Amino acid sequence: MNQYYTYILTNQNRTTLYIGVTSDLKRRVGEHKAGTHAGFTRKYNVHQLMYFETYPDINAAIAREKQLKGGSRQKKLDLINGFNSKWVDLFEQL
Fold first, then answer.
1. How far, in whole angstroms, is CA 48 from its chain's centroid?
2. How far is it, in rounded angstroms, from Cα 89 to Cα 8?
3. What residue spans define the domains of the chain?
4. Alpha carbon distance 14, 81 (integer Å)
5. How far apart are CA 74 and CA 79, in angstroms?
6. Which residue stretches of the chain have pLDDT < 50?
């Protein structure tokens, strides 16, 4: 059974948020941390995992990603604060 993840990353100063979808959260966040791929997260040093949700279906994960991206910054902050109030990098717990 496959598992899919919608996740939120931030930078060290907590000023930038990034939302993504993956089927392998540990590998993908590791790629963000290593700067493997050129793009937004490497440019802005966004690689700390603050929040994630799990889905059995890729379409549900993508729909949630789009919903989060369309929401306000405050809604994203509220999600993170409810899930990870100390804003610790959850990568080590994966």
1. 8
2. 11
3. 4-93
4. 12
5. 9
6. none
DSSP 67: H
Burial class (CB in 10 A: 0-12, 13-18, 19+), 6: buried
C-alpha dihedral sign at 40, 42, 48, 51: positive
CB 90 within 8 A of CB 84: yes
Q: For 4-93, CATH number?
A: 3.40.1440.10
Determine what percent of the chain falls in helix, strand and coil, rounding each to the nearest 5: 45, 20, 35
- Helix residue spans in the chain (DSSP H): 25-34, 40-43, 58-70, 73-83
What is the residue type of 43?
Answer: K
pTM of the model: 0.97
Location of structure tokens 């540990």: 26
Residue 13: CA atoms inside 13 Å, Cβ hemisphere, count?
A: 4
